[in-house]
Specification:
By secondary structure, this protein is of the alpha+beta class. It is built from twelve helices and 40 strands. An eight-stranded mixed beta sheet has the order 33-34-36-35-37-38-39-40, with helices on both faces. A four-stranded antiparallel beta sheet has the order 2-3-4-5, with no helix packed on it. The protein has a four-stranded antiparallel beta sheet with strand order 6-7-8-9, with no helix packed on it. Helix 4 links the parallel strand 35 and strand 36 (464-468).
Amino acid sequence: MARHVRIDDLFRFILPGSPALSPDGERIAFCVKRVNKKENRYESHLWLVPTKGGRPRQLTRGLVLDTSPAWSPNGKTLAFLSDRSEAPQVWTLSLEGGEPRRLTSFGGGPIAELSWSPIGREVVFQHFPVPKISEDERKRRATFKHITRLWHKEDGFGWYADEWWGVFRASVPAGRTKRLTARDHHATSPRWNPNGQRIAYVSSGGDQLANTPDLSTICMVNRGGTGLRNITPTSGQRDAPRWSANGKYLYWIGYEGKTGEWLDHEHSVWRTRVSGGSPVALNPGHDRWAMNMVGSDATSSMATMMEVYQDTGEERVVFGSDEDGSYRLYSVAGDGGDIRPELEGNVSVLGLSVGSGERPAAAAVIGTPRDTGEVYRVPLDGTGGFAPLTNLTKPFFAPLRWREPEEFRLKNGKIDLQCWVLKPPRFSRSRKYPCLIEVHGGPMTQYGDAWFHEMQVLAAQGWVVAYCNPRGSSGRGKKFCNVIEGDWGNRDWSDVQALTNHMVRRRYVDSKRMGMLGGSYGGYMTTWAVAHTNRFRAAVTQRQAGDFWVHWGSSDYGHMRTGFFGGKHPWQAPAAYHQQSPNFHVKNIKTPLLIIHSEGDLRCPIAESEALFTAMKVLDQAPCEMVRFEGEFHGLSRGGKPLNREERLERIVDWFERYL
C-alpha cells in the first residue's frame, strides 16, 4: 500500500551520476550513489549500461565511494576515484575481468578531474596533497593555522594553508606519479591535447590572482611539466577547457572582466588559438549561465557542462543552459553562430559525456520532478530527442504517495514570476491547509525541475508548500539576476510578498497559518521577512546571511561581495551594510523563530546566526531556539552526514507542528 513521503526516505535515495560514454559509443559507465544509515555515510558504485538499451550491470561493490569513471582510449579499462584505501586514490578496473587496482599512493587529500592520455598509457588529474600524519604524531604537535594570504579557505573544502591544488600525471599500469604544476597557484581541470604532448588546465591564485578567487586563466604545459604558457593573459574567469580535434584551438566557459564582476557578464563559450590571438565568444547574446543552478536536496548539480564533438565533419560545442527552472543543452558551431537546442523541456541535466568519432550522440544523467536522475542517450543532431536507458530510481518511488509540483505564473507589477505550489498527497479543495513559503539560496540559483525531498516531507505533513524564483535568481538572464545588487530586501522581498499574497487568496489556504523557511540567501530572506512583517505564524532560518559586516570579513568569498554595496567596503558604507543585514532589524521580530546553522560553515559563518539568537533571547519577544550541527559545512541539507540531515528535517517539522 502506498504511503506518504517520510524523513527517513533519505536513507533510501538512489542517485545516478557521472556518465562516461565509451570510445566506441556502445556503453555508458556511470555511478549510483546511496546512503548507508548504519555507517552514517554515502556509498557509490560503478555501473555499466549499453547505449542501445539493456539491463544495467553493477561493476563495483562494498563500503566505498567509487566515482568519476573515465574510459581508456581502447575501451578496455576504466579509471576512477575511490576511497577504498585509507586515502582517496586513482584506481583502474579492467573490463575484461579482475579486481580494481590502485594506481596512486598519496598520503591524503582530494582528487578530481581524471583524463586519459590519447595513447592510454597515462592519466592526468587534479590533487590537493595533504600529508599523512599518525594520531600519535598529531598529539605531539601544536595545532594551529598560519594564514598569510587573503584567499585561504573555501566552504565544502576547508582551509588551504600553504598548499595548492596541482595537476598530476600517473603512468598506467605502473602508477609512477609526477606533479606537473608549481606549488604557487591552484591548477585544476586538466585536459590532454589530441596528440598527448600538452595539457591545458585552469590556473587561479598565485602572485597575480591570490586575492581574486573569482578570476582564472587557461594555461598549458608539456606532458613533462615544462614549457608553461598562459593562453588567456587578460583578466577574466575561465572554466572547463576543452581542445579542438586538431589541437589548434582551446574552448572554455567564462567571461572577460575584472574581479567582482561575475554577475555583470554573460558566461559564454569562448575559443582561442593555442598559438596566440584574442579569444572569440561563440554564443554572445545567449544570456544564461552554463552552470546548473537548479536547486535540490536529492540530486547533485552546480556543475558547468561543455564538451566538443564532431557532427558529420563539423566541430560543434555542446553546452549547458540554466533557464526557466531547467538546465538544458544547446550546441554551437566551433567557429561561432548556428546555435541550436539539443535537449529541451522540463529537465535538469546532472551529468554529460560525449564520445569521439563521427557519432553525434551524448550520454547524460537527467533529473526531473518525477525522479532523482536516470541515464539517457541524447542524439546531438538538433532533433531534441532523448531516450531513457535506466529506470534505477523506480524502487525508491514505488511505495510513495506524493504529488508533483504545479507550476504557475504570477504578475508582480511588470514582473512575471515563475512559481510552484506543492499540495499534500490527499489534497481536498474543501479543506483549509497551513501554507509554507520556501525561498532558495544563492540568491543566484533557481527552483525548478528537480525532486525535492524536503518539500515532499513538508507536504506529507498536510501543509501546502509554495515557492518561486524572485528577482535575483538565475535562469532569466543577468539583468533579472543582478537587479538586486546593492538592494537586497527590496525587489526580491516584493516578489516573495507577491507569492505570499497570492497563496493567502487561494480558497484552500488558511491565511492565519502561514509559515516561512529557507537556507543561505533563503535564510536571509526568512529573517528579513519576520523582521518586516508579523503575518507568519512560525519561521525557520537556516545558514543565514544575517550580518554583512561579519559576512564581509569571515565568509570565504565575503570580501568579494562589495558589488552588493556599490563597490564599497564596510568602513566606506557602514549604513548600507547595516540596512541590508536582517540581524539589525531583529527588534521587530515577534514570530517564533528556529535558527539552524552548521558550525563549520565557511560561506555564511555561524557568527551571523549566533548574534541573531543572542539578540532574540535578550529581547525575549518571541520563542527562539538554535540548532548547531557539528562538523558540517554550508551544504548540510544536500551533502551533510545522513543522520544530521535526518535530524535537521525532524527539527523543522517539529517547529512548524508546534507553532503553525
